[in-house]
Amino acid sequence: MEALFLESISLPSPIKLNAQPYHCTRSANWCFSSHYNVSTASKNNKLKPVCCLNSENARSVKALPSHVEGLSYVLTKEDMMTLNNVAERDTTGKLMEKDSSDGIGIVKCLSGKVLFITGATGFLAKVLVEKILRTIPDVGKIYLLIQAKDNEAALDRLKNEIINKELFKCLQQTHGRFYQAFMSTKLIPVAGNVCESSDLGIHPSLVNEIASEVDIIINSAATTTFDERYDVALDINTKGPSRLLSFAKKCNKLRLFMHVSTAYVNGKREGRILEKPFSIGDNLAKEIARKSKTHSGSYQMLDIEAELKMALNARESFGDDEATQKMKEMGLERARNFGWDDTYEFTKAMGEMLLNKTRGDTPVVIVRPSIIEGTYKEPYPGWIEGFRMLDPLVLWHGRGRLTGFPVDSNGVFDVVPADMVVNAMVAAASSKLSSMRLRSGIDVYHVASSAVNPLGTEDLFGFSLEHFKTFPYKNSKGMPTNIEKLKLFNSVEDFNSHIEGVGETSTGSTSQRFKKKLIEQSKHLAKIYQPYTFYKGRFDNTNTQKLIDKMSEEERKSFGFDVRSIDWKDYICYTHLPGLRRNVLMGR
Ligand SMILES: NC(=O)c1ccc[n+]([C@@H]2O[C@H](COP(=O)([O-])OP(=O)(O)OC[C@H]3O[C@@H](n4cnc5c(N)ncnc54)[C@H](OP(=O)(O)O)[C@@H]3O)[C@@H](O)[C@H]2O)c1
């Protein structure tokens, strides 16, 4: 072992050196071969602790080298390069010296890598696939797990729902007549389902091929319906990620398992919420009660296996006609019982718990975006597919159907554009791949704006008013719709009484049936948005900000995700809403 003496590295703390070897941090497995106390040593500068990067090295250091002066460390050359962030692994895993201006080295890191991505027929992973192919054309193959009866049907979905979408028009322009050929060498559709326990339902003839090639797995598959049936949400969001992880363990080259979760796995937590992984059994109701000192001591353990059994038994006990409604109610009831707002958040949180429990030494990155909306810049501003979380609300306002809404006047909507989420995913993946020290750990990133650049709830409605006043929504006869400033209410109850009052007193040509329907729909919107319009948590994004700090100037330009740079008025009025109207409302 080559000894290198570094004066500049600060010691991990707290450190007490009584025995040797001594493990002082679990993650880096630092060990000290010394009987001496580091703080004393640093003060009088006489004693000489020796620090090695792993226990093997520490055991090989029998005594302090006589020539070591002051605080010196015995490190391998590789260790030193890693610590100074001047080295990275090449595609074969060999250590290479890195140019410090490279930043994370995203492009180099992902070039030649083979990826396996789920959920690419959906909104987010489609943006991810486009971004990778456009900015890292030397990436290896990308296997896409697609729900379909066979690989041929999966290929049809790939063409219709991915390759031929307008989102890919920049790539089409770049490759011209070679576009289809380029896409078919890169994108390999694989029929499968994260609810299938045997190799995700992938045809056996493909399993070994995929398992021997894949370097990175990214899981974006989910059901995102807030009040999904409990049995369905458990199957996809809770068990799905761990089924994929079991498959990942067959992939002998695998270097990263990335899971897309949601910042709202933090359920009813309040205040600044840190980027911490969940552990099995975490019960937010208990945690929140303990914090607010209202702990009654009677909180039930969150036992995922028991939840799965309960959902299965319940489903079998209900007749077909009532099963859907009853299973939806059950999901909401179980979520609230344990401190989450809805079935989606709760089942996603349990998905994270199972991943953390079963990951072993698989390197895992969990990305938790907040509310994802249309693209900020790339591949072009305002691309969106379908109505996302905020959109029904804002459109109801724009169409003149909403006259008021219940919100916390100090509240925020935690929004983040889709291309920033994707850029953060690419940077986080590359960072994990190029870091040699913490490879088998679990990293969590909040990709969210509420802690650093909040979009106020009142501001959002102000911006949408400005947009729809300037560019009015046109009704089915092509006539512009006139809209007014929304009246905001402090509670759902106040809002409900207001709108019932409006319904009773309003005259005009609108039929009573239509008015009644509007009232019911407004009440429904108020109810389902309540957890978000009164959300008391702010998602800390320290890990995500650190990732930005590691990037080079060039990387920040090509893979930027600094939510602090977003001008919300500009984004909502002139990027997101025009994009939504162009892409989803066909220009209305
Ligand atoms: N959209 C947001 O605002 C938001 C915010 C935070 C986090 N997230 C997370 O981001 C991820 C992507 O969300 P998204 O908005 O892109 O969702 P999305 O548009 O609803 O797409 C979901 C994707 O998952 C696939 N899928 C569902 N069930 C599956 C199964 N059993 N097996 C295989 N694939 C399955 C869907 O395939 P089909 O096309 O076959 O249905 C689709 O491709 C999710 O994990 C979500 O929790 C989303």
What do you see in this structure?
By secondary structure, this protein is of the alpha/beta class. Helices cover 44% and strands 12% of the residues. It contains 22 helices and 20 strands. A seven-stranded parallel β-sheet has the order 8-7-6-9-10-12-17, with helices on both faces. Helix 5 (123-135) packs across helix 16, helix 12 runs antiparallel to helix 13 (320-337) and helix 13 crosses helix 14 (343-358). The model is unreliable at 1-77 and 79-85 (pLDDT under 50). The structure holds NADP nicotinamide-adenine-dinucleotide phosphate. Residues 118-119, 121-125, 145, 147, 193-195, 220-224, 236, 260, 262, 348, 369, 371-372, 388-389 line the site of NADP nicotinamide-adenine-dinucleotide phosphate.
Pick out its properties:
single chain; 588 residues; alpha/beta; three-stranded antiparallel sheet; 12% strand; binds NADP nicotinamide-adenine-dinucleotide phosphate
